Amino acid sequence: MLNSIPQPEILNTELSFCEDSDPVLIEAIPDGGVLSGTGVSGTYFYPAVAGVGTHLLTYTLTDANGCTGETTASIVVNSIPQPEILNTELSFCEDSDPVLIEAIPEGGVLSGTGVSGTYFYPAVAGAGTHTLTYTFSGDNGCKTEMAEKEIFVYKSIEVDLGPDRTIGIEDSITLSITDLNCSVLWFDGTTKASYTIKASTLGVGDHPIWVTVSNDASCFSSDTLMLTIDNLNTIIDKKSLSKILIYPNPTQNGFTVKLNENERLDELYLFGTTGEYLLKCIAPTNSYFDISFLASGVYFLTIKTNLRITQMCLLKL
Length: 317
Known about the structure:
The chain is mainly beta. It has three helices and 31 strands. The chain folds into four domains: 70 residues, Immunoglobulin-like, CATH 2.60.40; 71 residues, Immunoglobulin-like; 66 residues, Sandwich (Immunoglobulin-like); 79 residues, Sandwich (Immunoglobulin-like).
Protein backbone atom coordinates (compact mmCIF):
# COMPACT_ATOMS: atom_id res chain seq x y z
CA MET A 1 0.00 0.00 0.00
CA LEU A 2 1.38 3.43 -0.94
CA ASN A 3 0.91 6.28 1.54
CA SER A 4 0.77 9.93 0.46
CA ILE A 5 3.53 12.32 1.51
CA PRO A 6 2.37 15.11 3.84
CA GLN A 7 2.04 18.55 2.27
CA PRO A 8 2.72 21.00 5.12
CA GLU A 9 2.15 24.71 4.59
CA ILE A 10 3.34 27.92 6.33
CA LEU A 11 0.32 30.20 6.52
CA ASN A 12 1.99 33.56 7.36
CA THR A 13 1.66 36.08 4.53
CA GLU A 14 3.61 38.90 6.21
CA LEU A 15 7.23 37.81 5.92
CA SER A 16 9.11 41.08 6.29
CA PHE A 17 9.99 42.49 9.70
CA CYS A 18 12.19 45.09 11.35
CA GLU A 19 15.23 44.15 13.33
CA ASP A 20 13.61 45.28 16.58
CA SER A 21 10.21 43.69 15.92
CA ASP A 22 8.61 41.47 18.56
CA PRO A 23 8.85 37.67 18.14
CA VAL A 24 6.52 36.42 15.39
CA LEU A 25 4.30 33.35 15.69
CA ILE A 26 4.77 31.17 12.61
CA GLU A 27 1.54 29.41 11.78
CA ALA A 28 1.82 26.16 9.87
CA ILE A 29 -0.44 23.19 9.01
CA PRO A 30 -0.97 20.42 9.69
CA ASP A 31 -0.12 20.72 13.37
CA GLY A 32 2.59 18.61 14.88
CA GLY A 33 5.49 19.54 12.63
CA VAL A 34 8.86 21.11 13.50
CA LEU A 35 9.84 24.67 12.57
CA SER A 36 13.54 25.32 12.05
CA GLY A 37 15.83 28.05 10.78
CA THR A 38 17.96 30.93 12.06
CA GLY A 39 16.17 32.89 14.77
CA VAL A 40 13.56 30.15 15.38
CA SER A 41 12.60 28.92 18.83
CA GLY A 42 9.62 26.59 19.01
CA THR A 43 6.99 28.10 16.73
CA TYR A 44 8.31 31.63 17.03
CA PHE A 45 10.71 33.57 14.82
CA TYR A 46 12.88 36.20 16.60
CA PRO A 47 13.99 38.96 14.19
CA ALA A 48 16.52 40.38 16.66
CA VAL A 49 18.15 36.95 17.01
CA ALA A 50 18.17 36.20 13.30
CA GLY A 51 19.64 39.58 12.42
CA VAL A 52 19.37 41.66 9.27
CA GLY A 53 19.04 39.71 6.04
CA THR A 54 16.96 37.01 4.33
CA HIS A 55 16.43 33.79 6.27
CA LEU A 56 14.92 30.45 5.24
CA LEU A 57 12.31 28.90 7.53
CA THR A 58 11.58 25.21 7.15
CA TYR A 59 8.49 23.40 8.47
CA THR A 60 8.90 19.62 8.54
CA LEU A 61 6.05 17.17 9.25
CA THR A 62 6.21 13.37 9.72
CA ASP A 63 2.81 11.67 9.73
CA ALA A 64 1.64 8.50 11.47
CA ASN A 65 2.74 6.42 8.52
CA GLY A 66 6.30 7.63 8.86
CA CYS A 67 6.11 9.71 5.72
CA THR A 68 7.84 13.10 5.86
CA GLY A 69 7.08 16.30 4.02
CA GLU A 70 8.40 19.84 4.35
CA THR A 71 7.84 23.38 3.16
CA THR A 72 10.00 26.50 3.24
CA ALA A 73 9.47 30.23 3.31
CA SER A 74 11.90 33.14 3.04
CA ILE A 75 11.63 35.78 5.72
CA VAL A 76 13.32 39.17 5.55
CA VAL A 77 14.66 41.17 8.50
CA ASN A 78 15.18 44.84 7.70
CA SER A 79 17.72 47.02 9.45
CA ILE A 80 16.62 49.90 11.63
CA PRO A 81 17.81 53.26 10.23
CA GLN A 82 20.90 54.56 12.00
CA PRO A 83 21.12 58.18 10.91
CA GLU A 84 24.30 60.04 11.76
CA ILE A 85 25.54 63.61 11.37
CA LEU A 86 29.14 63.32 10.17
CA ASN A 87 30.43 66.88 10.79
CA THR A 88 33.08 67.01 13.50
CA GLU A 89 33.68 70.78 13.41
CA LEU A 90 30.70 72.16 15.26
CA SER A 91 31.80 75.64 16.34
CA PHE A 92 31.43 78.59 14.00
CA CYS A 93 31.55 82.36 13.98
CA GLU A 94 28.34 84.32 13.59
CA ASP A 95 29.64 85.81 10.34
CA SER A 96 30.92 82.49 8.92
CA ASP A 97 29.79 81.24 5.52
CA PRO A 98 26.93 78.70 5.36
CA VAL A 99 28.06 75.20 6.42
CA LEU A 100 27.15 72.00 4.57
CA ILE A 101 25.89 69.44 7.08
CA GLU A 102 26.78 65.92 5.97
CA ALA A 103 24.53 63.12 7.21
CA ILE A 104 23.90 59.45 6.41
CA PRO A 105 21.94 57.63 5.11
CA GLU A 106 21.03 60.04 2.34
CA GLY A 107 17.42 61.04 1.93
CA GLY A 108 16.69 62.26 5.44
CA VAL A 109 15.54 65.67 6.62
CA LEU A 110 17.76 68.15 8.46
CA SER A 111 16.05 70.58 10.81
CA GLY A 112 16.91 73.18 13.42
CA THR A 113 17.35 76.92 13.83
CA GLY A 114 19.36 78.37 10.97
CA VAL A 115 18.88 75.31 8.73
CA SER A 116 17.85 75.50 5.09
CA GLY A 117 18.03 72.31 3.08
CA THR A 118 21.31 70.65 4.05
CA TYR A 119 23.03 73.91 5.05
CA PHE A 120 23.39 75.59 8.43
CA TYR A 121 23.53 79.39 8.38
CA PRO A 122 25.38 80.75 11.46
CA ALA A 123 24.27 84.34 10.78
CA VAL A 124 20.60 83.26 10.71
CA ALA A 125 20.87 81.05 13.80
CA GLY A 126 22.66 83.74 15.79
CA ALA A 127 25.08 83.39 18.69
CA GLY A 128 24.46 80.53 21.11
CA THR A 129 23.99 76.76 21.20
CA HIS A 130 21.66 75.16 18.65
CA THR A 131 20.49 71.59 18.11
CA LEU A 132 20.56 70.05 14.65
CA THR A 133 18.26 67.09 14.05
CA TYR A 134 18.58 64.66 11.15
CA THR A 135 15.46 62.51 10.70
CA PHE A 136 15.45 59.42 8.47
CA SER A 137 12.52 57.20 7.54
CA GLY A 138 13.44 54.02 5.69
CA ASP A 139 11.32 52.63 2.86
CA ASN A 140 11.11 49.20 4.50
CA GLY A 141 8.45 50.12 7.03
CA CYS A 142 10.80 50.31 9.97
CA LYS A 143 10.40 53.17 12.39
CA THR A 144 11.77 56.67 11.90
CA GLU A 145 15.02 57.44 13.70
CA MET A 146 16.75 60.72 14.52
CA ALA A 147 20.32 61.88 15.07
CA GLU A 148 21.08 65.07 16.97
CA LYS A 149 24.15 67.21 17.45
CA GLU A 150 24.71 70.48 19.21
CA ILE A 151 26.33 73.28 17.27
CA PHE A 152 27.77 76.45 18.81
CA VAL A 153 27.85 79.87 17.18
CA TYR A 154 30.22 82.50 18.57
CA LYS A 155 29.18 86.12 18.48
CA SER A 156 31.06 87.97 15.74
CA ILE A 157 33.99 90.12 16.84
CA GLU A 158 34.16 93.79 16.00
CA VAL A 159 37.21 95.96 16.60
CA ASP A 160 37.29 99.71 15.98
CA LEU A 161 40.35 101.82 16.70
CA GLY A 162 38.44 104.98 15.90
CA PRO A 163 39.26 107.75 13.43
CA ASP A 164 42.75 108.57 12.19
CA ARG A 165 44.72 110.68 14.63
CA THR A 166 47.44 113.34 14.62
CA ILE A 167 49.70 113.79 17.65
CA GLY A 168 52.87 115.64 18.46
CA ILE A 169 56.32 114.08 18.56
CA GLU A 170 56.37 114.38 22.35
CA ASP A 171 52.93 112.83 22.82
CA SER A 172 51.67 109.28 23.28
CA ILE A 173 48.41 107.52 22.53
CA THR A 174 46.75 104.54 24.24
CA LEU A 175 44.57 102.16 22.24
CA SER A 176 42.49 99.48 23.98
CA ILE A 177 40.60 96.33 22.98
CA THR A 178 37.50 96.01 25.16
CA ASP A 179 36.80 92.29 24.57
CA LEU A 180 39.22 90.63 27.00
CA ASN A 181 38.21 87.11 25.83
CA CYS A 182 40.07 87.62 22.56
CA SER A 183 43.68 87.18 21.54
CA VAL A 184 45.24 90.45 20.34
CA LEU A 185 48.04 91.07 17.86
CA TRP A 186 49.27 94.62 17.16
CA PHE A 187 51.25 95.79 14.13
CA ASP A 188 54.59 95.39 15.93
CA GLY A 189 53.88 92.00 17.50
CA THR A 190 52.59 93.32 20.82
CA THR A 191 49.82 91.15 22.28
CA LYS A 192 48.50 93.30 25.14
CA ALA A 193 44.85 94.39 25.08
CA SER A 194 45.82 97.95 26.05
CA TYR A 195 48.72 99.39 24.07
CA THR A 196 50.46 102.74 24.53
CA ILE A 197 52.35 104.13 21.54
CA LYS A 198 55.03 106.76 22.07
CA ALA A 199 55.30 109.12 19.12
CA SER A 200 59.04 109.57 19.63
CA THR A 201 59.51 105.83 19.04
CA LEU A 202 57.86 105.96 15.63
CA GLY A 203 59.17 109.36 14.53
CA VAL A 204 57.64 112.13 12.44
CA GLY A 205 55.43 110.92 9.57
CA ASP A 206 52.38 108.80 8.82
CA HIS A 207 52.18 105.38 10.47
CA PRO A 208 49.49 102.71 9.86
CA ILE A 209 48.55 101.22 13.24
CA TRP A 210 46.69 97.93 12.79
CA VAL A 211 45.39 95.30 15.17
CA THR A 212 43.85 91.85 14.70
CA VAL A 213 41.74 90.12 17.36
CA SER A 214 40.61 86.48 17.39
CA ASN A 215 38.91 84.00 19.70
CA ASP A 216 39.05 80.25 20.30
CA ALA A 217 36.69 79.62 17.38
CA SER A 218 39.07 81.47 15.02
CA CYS A 219 36.63 84.35 14.66
CA PHE A 220 38.66 87.43 13.88
CA SER A 221 38.41 91.10 13.07
CA SER A 222 40.94 93.79 12.26
CA ASP A 223 41.14 97.55 11.95
CA THR A 224 43.74 100.11 10.93
CA LEU A 225 44.24 103.63 12.23
CA MET A 226 46.53 106.10 10.42
CA LEU A 227 48.61 107.86 13.05
CA THR A 228 50.27 111.08 11.90
CA ILE A 229 53.13 112.31 14.05
CA ASP A 230 54.19 115.92 13.60
CA ASN A 231 56.07 118.62 15.46
CA LEU A 232 52.88 119.96 16.97
CA ASN A 233 54.51 120.63 20.33
CA THR A 234 57.44 122.59 18.94
CA ILE A 235 57.04 126.34 19.10
CA ILE A 236 58.50 127.88 15.95
CA ASP A 237 58.59 131.51 14.98
CA LYS A 238 58.12 130.98 11.27
CA LYS A 239 58.66 134.69 10.63
CA SER A 240 62.24 134.23 11.78
CA LEU A 241 62.89 131.47 9.22
CA SER A 242 64.84 132.40 6.14
CA LYS A 243 63.43 131.40 2.79
CA ILE A 244 64.39 128.04 1.41
CA LEU A 245 66.92 128.54 -1.36
CA ILE A 246 67.36 126.46 -4.48
CA TYR A 247 70.40 127.22 -6.59
CA PRO A 248 71.38 127.62 -9.28
CA ASN A 249 68.01 128.61 -10.68
CA PRO A 250 67.88 128.59 -13.73
CA THR A 251 70.00 125.43 -14.02
CA GLN A 252 71.27 123.07 -16.67
CA ASN A 253 72.05 119.92 -14.69
CA GLY A 254 70.79 120.08 -11.12
CA PHE A 255 70.13 122.16 -8.04
CA THR A 256 70.87 122.32 -4.33
CA VAL A 257 68.34 122.94 -1.56
CA LYS A 258 69.52 125.14 1.29
CA LEU A 259 67.56 125.09 4.56
CA ASN A 260 67.77 126.86 7.88
CA GLU A 261 69.76 125.49 10.78
CA ASN A 262 67.92 122.60 12.55
CA GLU A 263 65.62 122.26 9.55
CA ARG A 264 65.44 118.82 7.93
CA LEU A 265 64.36 117.96 4.40
CA ASP A 266 61.70 115.24 4.60
CA GLU A 267 60.17 115.13 1.12
CA LEU A 268 60.76 116.73 -2.27
CA TYR A 269 58.50 116.49 -5.31
CA LEU A 270 59.11 117.84 -8.81
CA PHE A 271 56.14 118.33 -11.15
CA GLY A 272 55.75 119.23 -14.79
CA THR A 273 53.42 121.98 -15.97
CA THR A 274 50.66 119.39 -16.48
CA GLY A 275 50.95 118.14 -12.90
CA GLU A 276 52.72 114.83 -13.52
CA TYR A 277 55.30 113.51 -11.01
CA LEU A 278 58.82 113.70 -12.46
CA LEU A 279 60.87 113.36 -9.30
CA LYS A 280 59.94 112.10 -5.84
CA CYS A 281 62.40 111.91 -2.96
CA ILE A 282 61.46 110.76 0.53
CA ALA A 283 63.93 111.51 3.35
CA PRO A 284 66.78 112.32 0.93
CA THR A 285 70.29 111.93 2.31
CA ASN A 286 71.83 114.84 0.39
CA SER A 287 70.74 118.29 -0.70
CA TYR A 288 71.74 118.10 -4.39
CA PHE A 289 69.28 116.83 -6.99
CA ASP A 290 70.21 115.89 -10.56
CA ILE A 291 67.69 116.90 -13.27
CA SER A 292 69.98 116.67 -16.30
CA PHE A 293 67.58 114.06 -17.77
CA LEU A 294 64.75 116.60 -18.02
CA ALA A 295 63.95 118.70 -21.07
CA SER A 296 64.27 122.46 -20.92
CA GLY A 297 61.26 124.21 -19.45
CA VAL A 298 59.48 125.36 -16.33
CA TYR A 299 59.00 122.94 -13.40
CA PHE A 300 57.42 123.18 -9.96
CA LEU A 301 58.87 122.01 -6.64
CA THR A 302 57.08 121.07 -3.42
CA ILE A 303 59.49 120.90 -0.51
CA LYS A 304 58.38 119.51 2.86
CA THR A 305 60.61 119.90 5.91
CA ASN A 306 60.11 119.20 9.57
CA LEU A 307 59.08 122.86 9.94
CA ARG A 308 57.12 123.85 6.83
CA ILE A 309 55.97 123.13 3.30
CA THR A 310 57.11 125.37 0.46
CA GLN A 311 56.30 125.48 -3.25
CA MET A 312 58.75 126.94 -5.70
CA CYS A 313 59.33 127.38 -9.43
CA LEU A 314 62.45 125.99 -11.21
CA LEU A 315 63.70 126.85 -14.73
CA LYS A 316 65.62 124.10 -16.57
CA LEU A 317 67.87 125.45 -19.39
